[in-house]
Amino acid sequence: MTLRTLYVTAPDGSRLATDVCLPPTPDPHPAVVIRTPYGRTAHRAELRGWAARGFAAVAQDVRGRHGSEGEWHPYRSHEEEDGAATIAWVRRQAWSNRQVVAAGASYAAYCGLVTAVTAGPHGEGHGDGAPDAVIAAVPALGLAETARESTGPERLRARAGWWAAHGDRSDSDPDALEKALARDPRLLEHLPVVGLGERLDRELPSWSGVWDDCRRGRLVLLGSAARIPLLAVGGTRDPFAEDTVALWRGWGGPSRLLLGPWGHRLTGGAAPVAGLAAGGRINLGALYVRWAKAALSDRIDHTRRGVIALGDSGRWCRVPGSDDGPVRETAGVAGQLASAAHGAPASPRPTALAFGSPTGLRLLHGAEFTADPDRPVRSDGFTVPAQPERADRCVLLSPPLPRPLDLAGHAEARVRAVSDAPCADWAVRVVALDPDGRADPLAFGIVRRTDPPGETVDITVPLGTLGRRLDAGTRLRVEIAGHHFPAHARNPHTGEDPVTATRLAPSRRTVLTRGSALLLPVTARREYVEPVPETCR
User: Fold this and answer.
1) Where are the beta strands (DSSP E) in 65-202?
2) DSSP output for 23-70
3) At what angle do helices 44-52 and 284-296 cross, to 10 degrees?
4) Among 65, 208, 294, 352, fewest CB within 10 Å belongs to which?
């Protein structure tokens, strides 16, 4: 197998650096195309793995990055145009059989997706510039999706890190934000947030524009008209996990979802093997090849199927919403606890973990608390004061689980509460405590609300898609706070935009246990599946 660097000409004449690795046999081959801002050379081992399995493998630096000419502006239309030109170029090569799979992770997944849904008629893959299938791992679906939660709050820490590392530059410095924080540990506390670019040691003129676009859902909407197969891969610990699920649910063609116990780098927990040459609990590379061959030969059922790992247990089950029917989300924790106490099977009725219930969540402290942006609840620590002099959050705790519990599906908190601020964020964090008290994050959600000050309101906080097995003896701790910093920008409580605000004010909060509950997707019957065959059929 030989690897060559070539240059593909973009519509405006820019030359895009492109690595091509071909199988050893001379016959025309299907191709896999990866377009990335993170450096094409990092994919060379992956290209050789694809080529060893019969694919012509192509990795390209997007315009303005690393070896490619032009100016890079993340999420602008040049990704659609350059992607279509590249796929059309691949199809004209003598080594191509004209079948193309667009693949990538994070921003590279966006590059493949936007080409798939814009280059061909209705995403059917018939145009020369449209792929025949897409593999999208931990997709970053757009500027608005990456900058803010769907519920409003700004993703400060992640966006600051990404833009400092990659924005407005032709190369990358992954440690740029850490270096800046070493010089100024309070860097992310300075106001206004929009001025962060001026406080780094290099120019970052695009930073202010990160927060301008609030329109979400463009790719998901376009994907609803797609007819080509999609494999969406995500991690339940990835901040973009719900975008991955939304893409899968909304895709118009055959779609598969694989959600493992991973973060955005597809590591952590029962970490998969990303490359094509090694073994592991799930060899993602081998899975990609198997799925791609099935998709290109039209052997993927025209259905929606998804599987989710139950944490690090090694067990997988179907994601609720798959065409084969949902995992049974019937019994809540309170029902499990009550039925276990009486020796009876779990209740088939949907139940919730009610606040203030003996078998639900007992209030420890903080029914009344102060959300102070000068002393925010932090996202990077799990220590909760046992008896705080001044409560900064509401804390509740469940009894120990009498037996193991499987969670698979969407979770949410329903909170009845009062705030004295015209605009307030409500952050809910659920932590699993093992019998020794060690904390392991289970779920998180944050919602921005604009309600009349002093009025009691009912707030629903989505907590994402869970896939976990909780051991017997585990307790659940629920924290309700007004901030989650530095992961999210602080709400100033003045009614001003948190991105441009320059003054902060504390906010008094009250959580009413009556009418509040935690809803968890507890599987009432174990229905396990094998993830690879389920994904590739």
Assistant:
1) 96-105, 133-137
2) -SS-S-EEEEEEEESS-GGGGHHHHHHHHHTT-EEEEEEPTTSTT--S
3) 50
4) 208
Contact 373, 411 (CB under 8 A): no
Hey, what are 27's tokens? 């016959």
**Whole-structure pTM over 0.90, yes or no?**
yes
The tokens for 396 are 């509740």
CA distance 465 to 246: 11
φ, ψ for residue 535 (rounded to 5)?
A: -75, -30
- In order of 69, 449, 453, the CA distances from 457 in angstroms are 53, 10, 10
CB 124 within 8 A of CB 228: yes
Q: Round to whole Å and give the CA distance between 239 and 371.
A: 24
- Name which of 514, 521, 395, 412 is nearest 470 in CA terms: 521
Task: Tell me the C-alpha to C-alpha distance, in Å, between residue 315 and each of 274, 362, 468.
Answer: 20, 31, 9
What gap in Å lies between CA 267 and CA 67, rounded to an integer? 28
Per-residue pLDDT of 483-520, as tens digits, reads: 999 999 999 999 999 999 999 999 999 999 999 999 99
Query: What's residue 214's pLDDT?
Result: 79
Structure tokens at 94: 């003598």
Residue pLDDT, tens place only, 118-168: 986 544 444 789 999 999 999 999 999 999 999 999 999 999 999 999 999
- Mapped onto helix, strand or coil, the DSSP state of residue 200 is coil
Tokens 């018939």 -> residue? 126
Cα distances (angstroms) measured from residue 491 to each of 187, 219, 242, 378, 498? 17, 29, 23, 13, 6
Distance CA 371, CA 520 (A): 26
Distance between CA atoms of residues 176 and 204, nearest Å: 12
Half-sphere exposure of 41 (CA within 13 A, CB side): 6
